[in-house]
């Protein structure tokens, strides 16, 4: 028996940023060095706990040993009670859990947050407010990947939205307010759609039946466990009369209603992913957010969209996902080609990376569209890989901008002479982004395309064209920055400082680790996503 199963490890991971916020509130605002040290230590605690959890993860139990569930408030429901039903009540729950889908993303979130905290020590104004919002953002991200209650998930999801709005709007660059407003509008619409879908899900499948003798109690909650069981196991409904069924399920989860919910969740999380054409808000964020925040946005927040689509869209509605797979594949190919072509056209490196993110999220959609074990593993692998690579690339961009004051490709060049370390890391990160074997980018792309090839060969061929375009635009940008003639002023620039080099080395080490030893991630995903694979196989057999 693991020692972690005896302690609330998931709550401790969530508690660390909250304690950091309390400490920051108590520190005088003049003590900037104390604040910076506090936020770095605070982000390292969840990282260390997540690493411990990842190493201790029991693949056979699927993470069940670490689950936490507590009832907060029970509210009686004033509903007409049919014969044989003793009571209706709604329970607000604190429910946390992990599995092979959420654990890798949890580790990614803690790792990128810790590296972004090191990048954030150069913030020049309102340190106290910045670091409080920063830790609040981390709290929201960790909660999203740990929550197993729909309403708790929604609360954490909204915390990230509010924190990002202020972090962009106050500490961003020249058009920061416009970028923050676009972020809030688009993501607010997505959140509203998601909340409506969640409310319908709770009303139709979010209940637990407690039966003692002939007395039946219906307990509503947002428990993902209850909803998943009710939608995947018909035995939960067998002993209910039509009168009882109508009383607990006013919407009647018909096939049409399931399609409506699936499309709503696809749109809600597709905005976050983002799926074309819901991508325009993301471009502003990538170019206007400060370095540490865009590292988190590209490295983690975009992955929350894919995570939500997998967790709620695919796992709860496997039959709809299977029938919609071709459309998802087409959307993925559009993302890949659209992002790659426009990345090639850009003259500003931040925009190159922004469109590159759109293209790489298309690969995630292809893995999901495969609707098989290989493709879904590839989708999760691509999420983790791109999170590491994009965070590293934007960290490098921030270092270059701090020295040169520009990220325009035409104004950069020859940086390898004065900044060989930064240039070398940039070249390696660029090679990882284009999918060079031996680096993490190759594994995610290969598995996603291999899974899709079984059922959609033409889509796979079209997606492969996008991979070729990725090599073109990425090498063009990286080589333009690092080689060629150097501007005279650039010769005086110093290479990376220790506080910059440390996170670059750590992120690069994980990229190489996953590229050379993919089983470090695939074993956890394979053993931990049995529920998802089982749902999809059952759906395919039933279809």
Which value, in Å, is the CA radius of gyration?
24 Å
Report the helical percentage. over 70%
**C-alpha geometry:** globular
Number of continuous helical runs? 22
Could you tell me the number of beta strands?
4
Name the helix and strand elements from N-terminus to C-terminus, one letter apiece: HHEEHHHHEEHHHHHHHHHHHHHHHH
Widest β-sheet, arrangement of strands: 1-2-4-3
The computed structural class is: alpha+beta
Distance between the termini: 41 Å
Overall pLDDT confidence = 87
Strand content: 5-15%
Main sheet: strands, sense, barrel: 4 strands, mixed
Unreliable residue stretches: none
Helix and strand layout, with pairings?
Blueprint: H1 9-26, H2 32-56, E1 68-76, E2 85-96, H3 102-119, H4 127-146, H5 150-171, H6 176-205, E3 207-212, E4 215-221, H7 224-232, H8 242-248, H9 255-272, H10 280-288, H11 291-314, H12 318-323, H13 325-345, H14 349-370, H15 373-404, H16 415-418, H17 420-433, H18 440-453, H19 457-482, H20 498-516, H21 519-528, H22 530-542
Parallel strand pairs: 2-4
Antiparallel strand pairs: 1-2, 3-4
Helix pairs in contact: 1-2, 1-4, 2-3, 2-4, 3-4, 3-11, 3-15, 3-20, 4-5, 4-11, 5-6, 6-9, 6-10, 9-11, 10-14, 11-14, 11-15, 13-14, 13-19, 14-15, 14-18, 14-19, 15-17, 15-18, 15-20, 15-21, 17-19, 17-20, 18-19, 18-20
């Amino acid at each position: 028996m693991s020692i972690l199963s005896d302690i609330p490890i998931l709550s401790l991971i969530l508690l660390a940023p909250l304690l950091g916020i309390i400490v920051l509130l108590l520190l005088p605002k003049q003590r900037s060095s104390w604040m910076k040290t506090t936020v770095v230590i605070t982000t390292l605690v969840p990282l260390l706990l997540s690493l411990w959890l990842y190493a201790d993860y029991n693949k056979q139990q699927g993470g069940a040993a670490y689950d936490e569930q507590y009832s907060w408030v029970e509210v009686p429901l004033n509903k007409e009670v049919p014969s044989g039903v003793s009571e209706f009540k709604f329970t607000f729950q604190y429910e946390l859990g992990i599995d092979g889908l959420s654990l890798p993303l949890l580790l990614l979130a803690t790792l990128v947050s810790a590296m972004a905290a090191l990048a954030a020590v150069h913030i020049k104004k309102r340190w106290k407010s910045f670091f409080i919002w920063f830790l609040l953002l981390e709290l929201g991200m960790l909660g999203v990947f740990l929550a197993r209650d729909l309403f708790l998930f929604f609360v954490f999801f909204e915390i990230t939205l509010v924190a990002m709005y202020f972090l962009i709007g106050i500490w961003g660059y020249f058009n920061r307010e416009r970028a923050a407003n676009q972020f809030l509008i688009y993501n607010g619409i997505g959140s509203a759609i998601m909340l409506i879908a969640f409310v319908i899900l709770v009303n139709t499948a979010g209940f637990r039946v407690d039966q003692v003798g002939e007395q039946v109690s219906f307990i509503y909650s947002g428990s993902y466990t209850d909803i998943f069981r009710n939608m995947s196991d018909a035995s939960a409904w067998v002993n209910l009369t039509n009168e009882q069924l109508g009383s607990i399920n006013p919407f009647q989860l018909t096939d049409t209603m399931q399609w409506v919910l699936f499309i709503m969740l696809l749109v809600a999380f597709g905005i976050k992913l983002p799926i074309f054409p819901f991508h325009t808000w993301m471009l502003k964020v990538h170019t206007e957010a400060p370095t540490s925040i865009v590292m988190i946005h590209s490295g983690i927040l975009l992955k929350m969209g894919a995570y939500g689509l997998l967790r709620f869209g695919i796992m709860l509605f496997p039959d709809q996902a299977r029938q919609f797979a071709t459309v998802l594949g087409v959307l993925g190919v559009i993302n890949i080609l659209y992002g790659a072509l426009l990345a090639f056209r850009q003259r500003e490196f931040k925009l190159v990376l922004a469109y590159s993110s759109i293209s790489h999220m298309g690969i995630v959609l292809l893995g999901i569209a495969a609707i098989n074990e290989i493709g879904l593993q590839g989708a999760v692998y691509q999420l983790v890989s791109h999170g590491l690579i994009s965070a590293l690339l934007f960290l490098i961009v921030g270092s270059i901008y701090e020295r040169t004051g520009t990220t325009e490709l035409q104004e950069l060049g020859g940086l390898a002479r004065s900044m060989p370390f930064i240039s070398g890391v940039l070249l390696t990160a660029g090679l990882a982004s284009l999918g060079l074997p031996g680096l993490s980018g190759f594994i995610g792309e290969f598995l996603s395309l291999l899974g899709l090839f079984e059922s959609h060969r033409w889509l796979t061929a079209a997606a492969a064209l996008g991979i070729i375009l990725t090599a073109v635009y990425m090498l063009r940008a990286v080589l333009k920055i690092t080689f060629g003639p150097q501007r005279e002023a650039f010769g005086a620039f110093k290479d990376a400082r220790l506080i910059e080099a440390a996170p670059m080395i750590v992120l690069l080490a994980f990229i190489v680790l996953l590229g050379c030893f993919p089983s470090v991630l695939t074993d956890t995903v394979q053993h931990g996503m049995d529920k998802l694979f089982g749902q999809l196989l059952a759906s395919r057999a039933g279809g």
